[in-house]
Specification:
Layout lengths: L10 E9 L6 E11 L2 E4 L13 H13 L12
Antiparallel strand pairs: 1-2, 2-3
Length: 80
């Protein structure tokens, strides 16, 4: 993964959380994806091996599709 700025640490970590519908506080992580020079590793989808890293929005889209397929009783909301 190429450095994008002078303080770049060389990886991208995406986390998806379940948050309380009453307080907005985080309750539990439901998915994480780490993208580094070695590849892309995720807690959802095919976790048996790394896959090649792709652009950030494509990686995030994979996670969103996975979470939508889980059938959570409350709607998904996104935040940047």
């Amino acid at each position: 993964m190429a450095a994008t700025h002078e303080t770049d640490v060389g990886y991208d970590l995406q986390s998806s959380l379940i948050v309380s519908d009453r307080t907005g506080l985080p309750l539990a992580p439901v998915a994480q994806r780490l993208v580094s020079a070695d590849g892309s590793y995720a807690t959802c989808g095919d976790t048996a091996s790394s896959s090649p890293a792709r652009p950030h929005l494509e990686e995030a889209g994979d996670c969103i599709r996975h979470l939508d397929a889980q059938g959570f009783p409350k709607p998904r909301v996104a935040s940047d």
